[in-house]
Amino acid sequence: MIEKSFVMMKPDAVARRLMGKVLTRFEEKGLKIVAMKLIHINEDLAKTHYGEHSDKPFFNDLVSYIISSPSLAMVIEGDDAISLIRKIVGATNPKEADLGTIRGDYAMDMGRNIIHASDAPESAKREINLFFNEEEICDYEITDNIWLYE
Ligand code: IDP
Ligand code: MG
């Protein structure tokens, strides 16, 4: 099923100039970028986005990290995109993430794991709506679809 996922390169990815390399992984896989913006997230938005973790011991550090510098927010579309992107991103802890995943290849620390991706259809919908208006999400065809999908 064609799905949309909310994906965000966190401040460390932007500051470490990894945006191009990370974006290339999604493009080369055959996923389609349908929205993208560089955004310096404020505290309210960070707390809402990570609301499910508000009672965790790492919550305050997580919010400080996310608001420290700009992030690159995206909506990425494709067949089974939500679970597929989680696989490409890798485990939350970069030390446990498989090599070949984004976190496995580019990050060292749980608190600096460079990228966020929605974990389920409901969270994808919530997160997309939190960061993007409907008119910011592009509906377009890419002609290589005949070579990517049977
Ligand atoms: P996910 O990003 O892989 O979905 P979640 O468990 O939803 O992982 O946690 C959200 C984010 O909170 C993680 O990506 C990471 O940045 C941060 N985080 C999670 N657990 C810890 C921790 O134990 N220490 C520090 N930061 C954490
Ligand atoms: Mg999560």
Structural write-up:
The protein is α+β, with helices and mostly antiparallel strands and 150 residues long. The protein has a single domain, classed as 2-Layer Sandwich (Alpha-Beta Plaits), CATH 3.30.70. It is built from eight helices and four strands; from the N terminus they run βααβααβααβαα. The chain has a four-stranded antiparallel beta sheet. The chain is globular and about 45 Å long. The two termini are 13 Å apart. Residues 53, 58, 62, 92, 110-111, 113, 116, 119 line the site of inosine-5'-diphosphate.
What is this entry, summarized?
The protein has 150 residues and is of the alpha+beta class.
Q: Shape, please?
A: globular
Task: Provide mean pLDDT, rounded.
Answer: 97
Bound molecules: inosine-5'-diphosphate, magnesium ion
Give the number of helices: 8
Low-confidence stretches: none
Q: What is the C-alpha radius of gyration, as a whole number of Å?
A: 15 Å
- The oligomeric status of these chains comes to single chain
| Biggest sheet: strand arrangement | 2-3-1-4
Give the CATH architecture: 2-Layer Sandwich
Tell how many strands the DSSP assignment holds: 4
CATH class: Alpha Beta
What string, H for helix and E for strand, traces the elements in order? EHHEHHEHHEHH
Find the structural class using helix and strand composition: alpha+beta
Notable characteristics:
single chain, 150 residues, alpha+beta, Alpha-Beta Plaits, 4-stranded antiparallel β-sheet, 8 helices, globular, binds inosine-5'-diphosphate, binds magnesium ion
